[in-house]
């Protein structure tokens, strides 16, 4: 060894020149060999030979470059994972692009560790937070640790039961607007008895947008009657971009350092047309455009609230929308103690935008799938009509408590959210190396939270786990765990803050629709496919035949 070192040290300038010209001549070859070596390591040696996770059961590596991602992106959300769990058991490893590994855990103890006990060590990964920030605003979905604790504490009062009770009446103007539109469209048909085909998802999207605008901002978007409403158009543009391939593009771009900041900056907006011409980036430029328009409108709504003296009052007639509550709470906190944590205008706007982004499409998707399931299960639909009709004939705007007490309505909504959860899966990462369910999980490993797979796990829900059967909520299976057997809103400190609001809103819309209409598949043998995106919205807008009762 010392002789090698002395040989190198003794190299003269001439020898160095010879070496340099050798590298110059062959640098392309050397570069190619190096890259090949790197890819061989990432794509093959790492997952097969070196990875500490190589012995965890799971599907084969899949595509040489992209692993199992093409199968996941092309399939219905959660279905490949469900088949793999059936085949390989409750802990599996899935290899994605360039050998990146993901683990999936099913057992309650593992989910408790990831989502509850060690939630700080298992945050949402950076790329997911950036995507959510870009499409919903930099609110609760994008922060973690102490920032998250502060924000969540400030937001909780807006989602308290008393506040939700006071908000329930806000749903009904939009709901009755929808009923009138549907009734008139059916009556205008040549033979109204035959009913009319509606693209159910589109109408659910409009009614939930109108409701969330009212509850979040106190703003009447009325997208039901005004398809050119600026906010509604911007959200429509945003939703039209949801697809598996677009999501894959976003994940790729958002993983590149600096890109998320660039895309959400003023520069990103000014250069969006130019960005639109770059292959692979096109849809992202439309996304920037949509978010910019949404932000501009919500900033003006916030300004109006700050200047509206009735927002500042604290009596029972004060405005109950979330933004008014936040403006009021901030004022009260600052009046008490000037040094207290108080949200800036920008942070407040981001929060409210997050509620619009997180609460609009999810609820629309949940409602659409519930109507689909009822259209295919006439007995459950009839039973629901028998429960809701007498209540609606007595009071056309049932309050929070009445909606909560309708037991078959509750079974139908819970069962629909179980079999077809609007958010079919989510992702976490690991901040430290630790054991989970007996597997040593290295720091930085991605973890899939398999919402749809857990919700339909035969070990808990029995042989008919994948079937829609609202009756099961009247007699839950013995393996049912109240927290970890149904993850549609996940659990722990990052659980959905809008869970109760979403369930109540779904109940109000559904009960009013079922009292007034009958739903059937649009044609015999109809199948409809959920998108493989962040939410499981139906890809065809979900046509259903609707008749008046
Ligand atoms: C059926 C409707 C809904 C479903 C299925 C749903 C589902 C979920 C899920 C699965 C998460 C966790 C995501 C993750 O950790 O990666 C989540 C988080 C969240 N949801 Fe919902 N959601 C619904 C409606 C709503 C509504 C109506 C709102 C607000 C008005 C809302 C606001 C939020 C917020 C702010 C978070 C982030 C919570 C945190 O990290 O602290 N969601 N939701």
Automatic annotation (TrEMBL):
Heme binds at residue 496. It is found in: Membrane. Keywords: Heme, Iron, Membrane, Metal-binding, Monooxygenase, Oxidoreductase, Transmembrane, Transmembrane helix. One of its GO terms (molecular function) is oxidoreductase activity, acting on paired donors, with incorporation or reduction of molecular oxygen. One of its GO terms (cellular component) is membrane. InterPro entries: Cyt_P450, Cyt_P450_E_grp-I, Cyt_P450_sf, Cytochrome_P450_monoxygenase. Its main location: membrane. Pathway: Secondary metabolite biosynthesis; terpenoid biosynthesis. Its cofactor is heme. It holds the Pfam family p450. It comes from the Eukaryota. Belongs to the cytochrome P450 family. This is Cytochrome P450. It comes from Collybia nuda.
């Amino acid at each position: 060894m010392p002789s090698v070192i002395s040989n190198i040290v003794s190299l003269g300038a001439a020898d160095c020149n010879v070496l340099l010209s050798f590298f110059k001549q062959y640098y392309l070859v050397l570069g190619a060999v190096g890259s090949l070596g790197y890819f061989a390591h990432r794509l093959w040696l790492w997952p097969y030979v070196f990875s500490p996770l190589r012995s965890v059961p799971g599907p084969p590596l899949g595509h040489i470059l992209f692993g199992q991602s093409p199968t996941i992106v092309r399939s219905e959300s959660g279905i490949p994972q469900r088949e793999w769990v059936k085949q390989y058991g409750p802990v599996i490893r899935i290899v994605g692009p360039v050998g990146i590994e993901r683990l999936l855990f099913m057992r309650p103890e593992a989910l408790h560790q990831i989502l509850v006990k060690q939630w700080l060590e298992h945050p949402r990964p950076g790329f997911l937070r950036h995507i959510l920030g870009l499409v919903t605003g930099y609110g609760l979905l994008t922060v973690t640790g102490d920032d998250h604790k502060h924000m969540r504490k400030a937001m909780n009062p807006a989602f308290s039961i008393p506040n939700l009770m006071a908000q329930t009446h806000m749903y009904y103007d939009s709901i009755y607007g929808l009923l009138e539109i549907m009734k008139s469209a059916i009556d205008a048909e040549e033979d109204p008895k035959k009913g009319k085909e509606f693209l159910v998802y589109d109408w659910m999207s409009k009614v939930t947008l109108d409701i969330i605008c009212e509850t979040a901002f106190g703003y009447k978007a009325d997208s039901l009657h005004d398809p050119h409403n600026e906010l509604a158009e911007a959200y429509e543009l945003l939703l039209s971009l949801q697809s598996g391939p677009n999501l894959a593009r976003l994940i790729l771009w958002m993983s590149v350092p600096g890109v998320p900041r660039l895309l959400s900056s003023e520069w990103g907006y000014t250069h969006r047309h130019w960005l639109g011409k770059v292959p692979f980036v096109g849809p992202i430029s439309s996304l920037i455009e949509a978010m910019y328009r949404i932000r501009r409108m919500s900033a003006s709504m916030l300004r109006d609230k700050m200047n509206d003296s009735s927002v500042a009052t604290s009596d029972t007639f004060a405005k109950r929308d979330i933004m008014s509550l936040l403006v009021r709470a901030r004022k009260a906190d600052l009046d008490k103690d000037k040094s207290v944590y108080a949200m800036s205008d920008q942070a407040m706007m981001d929060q409210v935008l997050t509620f619009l982004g997180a609460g609009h499409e999810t609820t629309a998707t949940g409602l659409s799938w519930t109507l689909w399931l009822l259209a295919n299960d006439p007995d459950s639909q009839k039973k629901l009509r028998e429960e809701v009709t007498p209540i609606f004939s007595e009071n056309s705007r049932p309050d929070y408590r009445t909606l909560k007490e309708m037991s078959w309505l509750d079974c139908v909504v819970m069962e629909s959210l179980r079999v077809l959860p609007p958010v079919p899966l989510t992702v976490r990462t690991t901040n430290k190396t630790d054991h989970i369910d007996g597997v040593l999980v290295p720091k930085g490993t991605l973890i899939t939270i398999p919402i749809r797979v857990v919700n339909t796990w035969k070990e808990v829900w029995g042989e008919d786990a994948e079937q829609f059967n609202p009756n099961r909520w009247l007699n839950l299976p013995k393996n049912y765990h109240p927290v970890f057997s149904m993850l549609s809103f996940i659990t722990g400190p990052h659980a959905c803050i809008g869970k109760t609001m979403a369930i109540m809103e779904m109940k109000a819309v559904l009960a009013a629709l079922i009292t007034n209409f009958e739903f059937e598949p649009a044609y015999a043998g109809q199948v409809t496919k959920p998108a493989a995106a962040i939410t499981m919205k139906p890809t065809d807008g979900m046509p259903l035949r609707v008749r008046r009762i």
